[in-house]
Amino acid sequence: MSEAPRAEPTAATARARTPTAAALIIGNELLSGKVEEANLVVLARTLRTLGIRLQRVVMVEDTVDVIAREVRILSETYDWLFTSGGVGPTHDDVTIEAVAKAFGVAVVSSQEMEAMLRAHYKSACTEGHLRMALMPEGAVLEVTDEIRWPTVRMNNTWVMPGIPEIFRMKLPVIIERVGRGRAYVSRAVYTKMDEGDLKPLLDAVVAAFPDVDVGSYPTWQSDKYKTKLTFDGQDELRVDAARDAFVASLPEGEPQAL
Amino acid sequence: MSEAPRAEPTAATARARTPTAAALIIGNELLSGKVEEANLVVLARTLRTLGIRLQRVVMVEDTVDVIAREVRILSETYDWLFTSGGVGPTHDDVTIEAVAKAFGVAVVSSQEMEAMLRAHYKSACTEGHLRMALMPEGAVLEVTDEIRWPTVRMNNTWVMPGIPEIFRMKLPVIIERVGRGRAYVSRAVYTKMDEGDLKPLLDAVVAAFPDVDVGSYPTWQSDKYKTKLTFDGQDELRVDAARDAFVASLPEGEPQAL
Question: Are A17-178 and A185-249 equal in CATH topology?
């Protein structure tokens, strides 16, 4: 398939830098396997639709200094950082303190949040509940018309809760505030060939389409195909061209229609 | 609950240093959300039963230099490193090359693996298939009596495949070779109290039992309880004592029996 068309990336692709992101997943319960992590995949998919490239995920224990160091590095390196977990009133909820430390600011009580907590818990409101009003000095309480309970953002760092239901509820706030870039498109091709046999065909399409991310995934769970090939990028024409060039290079009887 | 018994950790607990581990999860398909990561939770649970503390997980793209840098840092910092993904014959399978780079050794073809691959694929064996015989110079092919297809280990770094079925198949090799330490025990208590109200009780038990990891997890999915409390450690007597002290501090009607 060395005759595959070697078109240059379009000017638009070259010009627009893709925003990048990292995720910091926090919690002893995840590292011990007591709880299965559930937020990363929905964050990854959401960022993908926003045209943001998630490049790194780090998972750490509930330790202030470890989290703070990680927030500092990741928030400096990537356009956006999303933390998950460690938000709440108990001793193992140290994310707010760590984010404040990372940005070199104090932890302060938000009068706005305090008022919301008092309105919510009424006479049952305790000091424990009011700890949820604490945030890094200078943080912004992000809301939308539909989602009035605030999400804390400190500069480029979004502090998200670990509870999967609440994490999901808050995603629309990120979608609205971070803004939509150029979404990724993805195409898939299924074959009965194995990766060893596919390798020269894949090498050719990878060489011809450096701006398209080509993935190869063997399965053990289907008798309809052996390997799934994916073609991903932000320029739909280029992604389609890469897929078409690859399909044209396959032997007779391929690809498989599922 | 400030009257909780403040026993010192036993001599055995203090003496035996708990081995540590990190995991490096590799693959663009995970960061894009195209595939949901599935190996971490079984690795975490396996390490837990072996008495090994998984302290850090990093997820990166299929880029040799990024993976190599991460392998170097993690293998130097933790007793064990487990990589998942990027093993195979195609262009996006760069973990072996990266591990070799991290340890400053060449990539060589294992005669033993080559012979196994030729025996497996017979006359259909291609150059692509033979790429699976490549490994860092000095790596060990780990097998057990039951699991004869080898797993690559380079010093303290285990190179595991990303495909969930194969990852799971290979776990017994790790269990046999890494060796069992002192397993963690875990106890749970369920209450209808919320975290804000639980905070002072939790603070007391955390202060009295610094050697027990106390976790607090609100749920939105049950009407039988509101918060799950967990007590984890390697000294069963201490874990039970922490749990009992916490339960004794709860108001009447708590904890909830599920």
Answer: no
Closest residue by Cα to residue A157 from A180, A131, A139 = A139
R_g of chain B, CA atoms, integer Å: 23
Residues of chain B with pLDDT under 70: 1-16
Residue of A41, A36, A84, A81 lying closest to A62 (CA atoms): A84
What ipTM is given for this predicted complex? Answer: 0.86
Q: Which residues of A touch B219 (CB under 8 A)?
A: 163
The beta strands (E) that lie in chain B are given as 20-26, 53-60, 80-84, 107-109, 134-136, 140-142, 151-154, 157-160, 185-191, 213-218, 227-233
| Å between B188 CA and nearest CA of chain A | 11
Angle formed by the axes of helices B236-249 and B195-208, to 10°? 140
pLDDT band at A16 (very low <50, low <70, confident <90, very high): low
The reply to whether the predicted model has a pTM over 0.90 is: no
Report residue A93 as tokens: 């909820």
Q: Which of B37, B129, B199 comes nearest A90 by C-beta?
A: B199
**Cross-chain Cβ contact A57/B54 below 8 Å:** no
Query: Tell me, what's the pLDDT at A40?
Result: 98
How far is A59 from chain B, CA to nearest CA, in Å? 5
Of B31, B44, B90, the CB nearest to A195: B90
Between residues B85 and A89, the one the model is more confident about: B85
Q: How many Cβ contacts (< 8 angstroms) between chains A and B?
A: 186
Per DSSP, A210 falls in state T
Q: Which residues of A touch B202 (CB under 8 A)?
A: 90-91
The yes-or-no verdict on residue A6 having pLDDT over 50 is no
The residues spanned by each domain of chain B are: 17-178, 185-249
Q: What angle do CA B244, B245, B248 make, to 5 degrees?
A: 85
Residues of chain B neighbouring A54 (CB-CB closer than 8 A): 31-33
pLDDT score at B2: 40
User: Are B217 and A47 in contact (CB < 8 Å)?
Assistant: no
Phi, psi at B45, each rounded to 5° = -65, -40
Cα B44 from Cα B48, distance rounded (Å): 6
pLDDT at B148: 86
CATH class of segment(s) A185-249: alpha beta
Kindly report whether the peptide bond that precedes residue B255 is cis, defined as omega within 30 degrees of 0.
yes
* Alpha carbon distance A244, A114 (integer Å): 57
Contact list, A33 vs chain B (CB under 8 Å): 41-48, 54
Q: Which fold has domain A17-178?
A: Molybdenum Cofactor Biosythetic Enzyme; Chain A (3.40.980)
